[in-house]
Amino acid sequence: SNLIKENCIINTLKLMELRGPDSSNSITKYHQSKKIALLHTRLNIIDLHSRSDQPFVDKNLTLIFNGEIYNYLEIKKNLEYKYNFKTESDTEVLLKAYQEYGEKCVDHFIGMWSFAIWDDKKKELFLSRDPFGEKPLYYFISKKGFFFGSEIKYIKSLCKEDFSLNKDLIRQNLFLGYKSINKQNSTFYEKINILENSTNLKINFKLDKKLIKYWEPKCVVNKNMSKNESIEGARHHLVKSLKYRMRSDVPLAFCLSGGVDSGALVSIAKKKFKSKYFNIFYNRQ
Length: 285
Hints:
There is one protein chain. The chain is an alpha+beta fold. Helix content is about 30%, strand content about 30%. It is built from 7 helices and 13 strands. The chain has helices spanning about 5-15, 70-80, 90-100, 150-160, 165-175, 225-245, 260-270; strands spanning about 25-30, 35-40, 55-60, 60-70, 110-120, 125-130, 140, 145-150, 190-195, 200-205, 210-215, 250-255, 275-280. Strands 3-4-5-6-10-11 form a 6-stranded antiparallel sheet. The chain has a 3-stranded antiparallel sheet with strand order 8-7-9, with helices on one face. The longest helix is centred in the last third of the chain and has 19 residues, at about 225-245. The chain is globular, with a radius of gyration of 21 Å.
């Protein structure tokens, strides 16, 4: 219980400001000799009001969440008959979905995320990372406790432990390139792991850990599909996908690389959705 000092929490929140400059907060809970600290800094995208700041508490559950649930409005509509929503955020929808569906809530999400939910009743922490691993989630387990964060430096700041470099992974990166280093859950520091994509993790006070792979890609080929059907199908899903991802209460930005992909997205946003946006250009000299 003396492991995480208050000044460690304050200093770690300062480290996190770059990832979330709009608000900063933490919650500390105690259970006998155990201590649970949840830290969060926020970048406002959906529902800019302080009511959606995190850690977000609802009854026995406390959530910290990095990312965005793009289809939160559809999920919310399906749950409104049963739950009273107090915000307009995807954060609250995520937590209500967990209340309704439990660990299977991730099967309902379209988005990118890494999140952690502490359950006061079960005395259990539930963590999840999105299907393609867009949002990072690192963790470290020792006899002292369980530490996690979106960057390794937050873990080092909280647990005050010296970690040895993972020289094998560094060597692999140098000789085989960066594409070779994300095949396993190891990182550039020994004993610090990354939660793999499309994976949930549950852990309790006894530090009993359980990993669950909740999704894997499946390829189903329809050989009877015509060329025109495949083109229209691709267009339909691209437009639908972009519509989800353009939900925002702040201005949107497109990074234009000069390629077909980014150009197609901007074209759809302009012609189909009449959206206002700004562009970011990279000038390569």
